[in-house]
Amino acid sequence: MSRRSWLFWFAALLVVVLVGGRVLAVETAERAWAATFPGGEVLLVARTLARQMQGFVIVFAMIWATGNLFVVYRAIGSVQMPRRLGDLEIVEAVPQRVLFTLTLGTGILGGLLLSLGTADWWRDALLAGTPPIFGVSDDILHHDLGYYVAVLPWQATLQAHAATWTGSATLVAGLLYVAIGSLRVQRGRLRTSDHARAHLAVLLACLALALAWGAALDPAEVVGGLHGTLDQTAVDVRLPGAAFVAAVGVATAIASLIWGWRDVPNIVLGSWSALFLAWVGCYALVPGVVRASRTTDESLLRRSRAALERVAFGLTPIETGPPPAFSSIEAALRGGGLPLWDAKRVALVAGGSPRAAVALSTTPPGWRWLTVPPPPAAPRFAVETDTGLALARAPVRPGDTLSWFAPGATEFAVVSPDTWPALRAQGVPLRGSLRRAALAWALQGLSLARAETDGRVLLWRRDVVDRLQRLAPFADFGAPTPVLSGGDLWWVSWGYVSSEAFPLARALPWRDEPVRYLRAGLVGAVRAATGETHVWLAPGHDSLTAAWARYFDPLIEPRNRIPDELLRQVPYPAEVFQLAAAQLARANTTDSGPWTPRPRTAFQVAPGGTLWTGIGFEAETRSASRFVALLAGTVEPAGPALRLWHPSPPAGPAEGLPPDLVGASTTSPGELRIWLAGSSIATLQGLFAQAADSVPRGVASVYLTLGPRSGTGPTVPDALRSLLTGQTYAPLDTTLGGRWEQVRALVARADSAMTQGNLERFGQIWKEIRRQLAPALRPR
Known about the structure:
Layout: H1 3-34, H2 41-74, E1 80-85, E2 88-93, H3 96-114, H4 121-129, H5 145-180, E3 183-186, E4 189-192, H6 194-223, H7 232-261, H8 265-293, H9 299-312, E5 318-320, H10 329-334, H11 343-351, E6 357-361, E7 368-372, E8 380-385, E9 388-393, E10 413-415, E11 428-429, H12 433-443, E12 457-459, H13 464-471, E13 476-477, E14 481-485, E15 488-499, E16 508-510, E17 513-515, E18 517-527, E19 533-537, H14 543-551, E20 556-557, H15 564-568, H16 574-587, E21 596-605, E22 612-620, E23 625-636, E24 639-645, E25 668-669, E26 673-677, E27 680-688, E28 699-706, E29 709-713, H17 716-725, H18 736-756, H19 759-773
Parallel strand pairs: 5-24, 19-20
Antiparallel strand pairs: 1-2, 3-4, 6-7, 7-8, 8-9, 10-12, 11-12, 13-15, 14-15, 15-18, 16-17, 18-19, 21-22, 22-23, 23-24, 25-27, 26-27, 27-28, 28-29
Helix pairs in contact: 1-12, 2-3, 2-5, 4-5, 5-6, 6-7, 7-8, 18-19
């Protein structure tokens, strides 16, 4: 063998060793990690299925691309390449082996390009094999809702790739035949060789059938929202027209095969022209003309859409009525159930970092903020006082103060099981030089291959969300919430299942993507100190999540295994609540626009010892905004529950919500909280002494309303005293800057009183403004 051959085979062997070694190392690491979970063999089965599916797709795509190029290659007699030697120009034939190698390499590359984006096909195919049954059908095509979230996406994906593969093969083959002269236009007539015509006829027939398949799926895709929002014109015109396009597509496929058998170019040109005109007419032209020329009655469609959108975005079941109210405004404020602070500011003060996780805690002796700073800091409680936040160490087990597993913990760790025996079960044991070398290669950590790590434990995938999503790859988990249960710190996260297709539903944005179906079907929990991990079916889970859970049993545990103490402290799924509020606002659009949420994001309160998530809504009127509804959600043993309360009688101007607070260079407004105290609407909001992106120095002012009454003061008791007595609290800060800030707040309250038509209250505030602006009396 020549020196060049030796170098080639050495390079090939090196590539095989590196690629094969990397694959074996990753496989070893994945198997070792899966063995740390009861039922982890399910992960290996899913991993094997994914690789088999993707391997089959890649091989099929390579065979498809290479086969079509090889058919063209067989039609090539020889290729002449000009060369210049000095002043002489010669023509040299390209060797056939070079053409064959070029054909094979191009086909392999084309197959790899065609197989891009198919890594998740195994999940779509798995779910479509046994789709969920909702027991509810749409009113147009009468398919079960499970068809739209499971079967239709898989069929649409296959059809789209079939059209792409056949279309690209037809285009490339046609251009190559034009290049070699087998396809040309001569004297206004299409001329082809028998070989090229037979090949192109089969490709055109396959493309026509793929388009006909798309037309057959088009009615379900239109109803499922894959082509935009459904309207009555689409139901009356596009859905019947799709059957006509499918029939024309089948006829075009037959005409293409006839052209391949007998050289009649007009039949293929005419059939494809008819298919193009049918596609444009039935999908774009005719619906557009009909939509512009008539006014359709969409009342029936709107009623059907409203019912299905409630199912899609978690508004079922929803109770109509008030949520649990505080017995009085005093009970709401003194019991801590109506907090003044918010999680972001508590994180800055108690956690020392904006990355600290904060949640309202239900552990005794009352409602407090639980804050968990980034490791190695220990969790602490923060209790609201008149002067700020009082900090205390959280009652965590003595050996569990260090959080090995936490949000953002992306690096692996190596610990000694003798020092940390609780980590032995969830860690990957480091034993044997080969296993340590494989883990070091897979994790790119050379320290793992050292002999001194033998017998220790590897903690891998310590980030909470990443850990949960690898156990349930069909779900997307939200931001983890810290929860104390039995002296243990847990990270709890809701797992969301979504779908781009759902009948009649209009899309809403979720994580920068449009979705037409979103439900919180899973509850995931990771113990911070040991990594003990659970993924449970959520109470009241939907049919789509149940279908997935059947494939991932026993990794997905039943709902009855969730500890009650842990479930009581979990708030309503935040992302589902936001979409439910957006859907509720959109469904109640009036002439002046949709409902406006107040505040923009949901808040949390704790009436009666239960954690509730809420948001208010206002509607625009000719004179002012009017409070119209309060949406509240909590997690009950049967599942997440929503309540929608409308003031009865409707809240008039005297009971409108206060205007938004406006901060200054040294102050920033806190979250507005709205709830019921007795039979009246109570609101609480603080103005914090906090510059932009800085730690709050405390509360500058507190604003409190109860029905038509309002009160303000530097602390919550002062604001309550002001509300009950009707006297505006005199500010302690008598400097010019402090008085000016107080005047600005009073002007905002006066504007609100004038807007509400409360002249008596406006007069009281105006007197206070004059007093603040009056010059100080000087002694004579």
